[in-house]
């Protein structure tokens, strides 16, 4: 006799209690990582800039200056129409307790479109720019499989399954179970920007860009947990399997301001400095799941829920500085960006208790970028290479967890007015990911490939 | 945030002054202060300024030496007429040493001649001609005909006559970096 026949009211009791457990966990579901991810590992845009490893704050002489250093826009003497496309491939070799599985995800995106309008001047420079650009990809995949006994009944526990003791919480954990999960994320963070720049002295340009940030991330999880080892055979915890499909669609919006300056102490040297003033992101998350819990006696129950959460995240000052040197046909550039991740904050009252984790678990980081470009005598072209070292904002992780990118680029000028730029980025790092469904977590080797093609028409 | 931005921008302007010039100062004749001229972008900067010094980009030799790269990076769109009237860059593969055309071939105000005034780095130098300055403005034959020169009066006889003398002067004086007109027209 199965549960339903033996205990006619079982399902109702079970369902109500499960939902109440889930609701408690959901309302506390947002954590520091939800705030950090908004701008963490932000790549930027522009095939020329990324071909030079993003070391562009002291170069910034095209539309992409609107992102790297708005002060650099003042160098422009021509109107420019700009656009670029990108194709990325993100692969993850995930290991759960010794079992590895590879997966990859690709995305082709329209990356940016913009216009630059230099105002005719007799002396100095006055330039405006307007456009849209995607500066961060949310693409992520983690297809894992393995055995785990770790867990926490707060996250995946079930009460009410024993009709004689409905308050007793049972979970799958403590003994080995088989887990499979496919975690997918996708989307972008973009900026609608308007910028202005001017020369304030023969060798100093300043600029400002007003940015309306808008982004969307679509995160999904398909999860299966089964008692393949027969460790859960005793009523009422005679679990057989648990499956869940979950989604979190996050929408981000914020107004931001970036100030920049470009100094030219001599004809061979440029110094770029930029600063993003603190901003507040409004985040709206739509959450939902469908789950099925099955027992050995063929009884199964189905749960679903959805909800919407809104919260605000405060992001502190970010500072950038760089130097570019011209040596014959070679342009060499380096830049650094400082972000103090400990100063991130939730501005929403019921999440303020999470703010202590920013100082406890995170740190300030310097993202370092170096690159170079050489003019080639063949055609009218430029070859580029660069390197990005982007430390993880988490404390206590060794250098393998820092994000490293090697970049290559090539640009060709056609008929003096059209420039086509290509860039390739290869990134690699380790990371560790866990959630309520897989508390043991997966150790991940990430390989990132991105191809960017940019088009610039100056007239 | 907006308040902070406004304060920041105002501070920059106050501290640095208004370096960028969108409108050229009116040129006043030294000998006849009643005679003044408006200056336009299509006027011949070289008739008063020795070098427009358009290059504010890094000192990369392939940009400086190639008209194709120079045109793409440096040459202002409001001077493009001069570029298209020249033959520069037609077969340039980026490695040619053909220099960038430096300015329009159409002087718009009468009687100007080049001087040794040096352009300000990073800009098209343009200083008002005023008493005491080393820029010399020579008025036309009918200099008593007052007037502000504008696009409409370029074809009058007086300015036409003076224009030819201006062109001859520039051929002789040349410009910095060897960018004189005779080379540009090769």
Oligomer: heterodimer
Query: Could you tell me the radius of gyration of chain B in angstroms?
Result: 18 Å
How many alpha or pi helices of chain A? 7
The general outline of chain A is elongated
Overall radius of gyration of chain A: 26 Å
Classify the fold: give the CATH topology of chain A.
Porin
| Structural class label of chain B | mainly alpha
* CATH classification, class level of chain A: Mainly Beta
Main sheet attributes: strand count, strand direction, barrel closure of chain A? 14 strands, antiparallel, barrel
The overall pLDDT average of chain A reads 89
CATH architecture of chain A: Beta Barrel
- Uncertain runs of chain A are 8-28
Number of domains of chain A: 1
CATH superfamily of chain A: Outer membrane protein transport protein (OMPP1/FadL/TodX)
For the record, give the distance between the C-alpha atoms at the N and C termini of chain B, rounded to a whole number.
55 Å
Task: Give me the count of strands of chain B.
Answer: 2
How do the strands line up in the largest sheet of chain A? Answer: 1-2-3-7-8-9-10-13-14-16-17-18-19-20
Task: State the main characteristics.
heterodimer; A: 459 residues; mainly beta; Porin; 14-stranded antiparallel beta barrel; two-stranded antiparallel sheet; 7 helices; 10% helix; 59% strand; B: 186 residues; mainly alpha; two-stranded antiparallel ribbon; 6 helices; 2 strands; disordered C terminus
